[in-house]
Amino acid sequence: MRSDPSGPVPPGGAEPADATDPALETLRPGQPTPGAVGRVGPGADEGFADPGEVGRRQRHELWMRRALEVAVTGPAGPDAEPSDVDAVADIPVGAVVYGPDGAELAVGRNERELTGDPTAHAEVLALRRAAERLGRWRLEGCTLVVTLEPCTMCAGAIALARISTVVFGAWEPKTGAVGSLWDVLRDRRASHRPEVYGGVLETENAAVLRAFFR
Ligand SMILES: [Zn+2]
């Protein structure tokens, strides 16, 4: 079930498209939003007005700011003790899972160094907690928001969880599996293909990562 009928065009629509093209279905400053220009495929003739697109973009940016907050200050947010986060050397990546109604279900921050767990990526932790909270592994209708383009493991976990929409921040050309190096989520051979919006608040997200590696 979809609460937002103005979902983006499935990759390719009527025409096979290059699924590895990062420009696909992304929202980037200065670029037309998906659907605003040349919309094809299901929904193309439904006359969605710009306010819907703008509203979705604003919601994605709001959600991304929360994910960024988790990345920078940890799940507790600004009230966290700085030592909770600063003491570890984990790359600041934050993820939030939102339910179909837009309510925050769970958050995760990359804890690979903290826990010594190679799979403790922000997305995996947030997915696990969201599933635990809902009492089921299927997260249909949910949106996962993450500050960095997911890797292959996380893209796989997102697909397995049946997440409906993925919103990510900075592109990750070296390991990104949602359009950069691979495109696991929009592979036309995959049975479950979530909607994907990349590059949301890209500048802010990239700045946080750059500051960490400086
Ligand atoms: Zn990952």
From TrEMBL:
<dbReference type="GO" id="GO:0002100">
    <property type="term" value="P:tRNA wobble adenosine to inosine editing"/>
</dbReference>
<dbReference type="InterPro" id="IPR016193">
    <property type="entry name" value="Cytidine_deaminase-like"/>
</dbReference>
<dbReference type="GO" id="GO:0008270">
    <property type="term" value="F:zinc ion binding"/>
</dbReference>
<feature type="domain" description="CMP/dCMP-type deaminase">
    <location>
        <begin position="58"/>
        <end position="192"/>
    </location>
</feature>
<feature type="binding site">
    <location>
        <position position="154"/>
    </location>
    <ligand>
        <name>Zn(2+)</name>
    </ligand>
</feature>
<dbReference type="InterPro" id="IPR016192">
    <property type="entry name" value="APOBEC/CMP_deaminase_Zn-bd"/>
</dbReference>
<dbReference type="InterPro" id="IPR002125">
    <property type="entry name" value="CMP_dCMP_dom"/>
</dbReference>
<keyword id="KW-0819">tRNA processing</keyword>
<feature type="binding site">
    <location>
        <position position="151"/>
    </location>
    <ligand>
        <name>Zn(2+)</name>
    </ligand>
</feature>
<dbReference type="GO" id="GO:0052717">
    <property type="term" value="F:tRNA-specific adenosine-34 deaminase activity"/>
</dbReference>
<keyword id="KW-0479">Metal-binding</keyword>
<keyword id="KW-0378">Hydrolase</keyword>
<feature type="region of interest" description="Disordered">
    <location>
        <begin position="1"/>
        <end position="53"/>
    </location>
</feature>
<dbReference type="Pfam" id="PF00383">
    <property type="entry name" value="dCMP_cyt_deam_1"/>
</dbReference>
<protein>
    <recommendedName>
        <fullName>tRNA-specific adenosine deaminase</fullName>
        <ecNumber>3.5.4.33</ecNumber>
    </recommendedName>
</protein>
<dbReference type="InterPro" id="IPR028883">
    <property type="entry name" value="tRNA_aden_deaminase"/>
</dbReference>
<comment type="similarity">
    <text>Belongs to the cytidine and deoxycytidylate deaminase family. ADAT2 subfamily.</text>
</comment>
<comment type="subunit">
    <text>Homodimer.</text>
</comment>
<feature type="binding site">
    <location>
        <position position="121"/>
    </location>
    <ligand>
        <name>Zn(2+)</name>
    </ligand>
</feature>
<feature type="active site" description="Proton donor">
    <location>
        <position position="123"/>
    </location>
</feature>
<keyword id="KW-0862">Zinc</keyword>
<comment type="function">
    <text>Catalyzes the deamination of adenosine to inosine at the wobble position 34 of tRNA(Arg2).</text>
</comment>
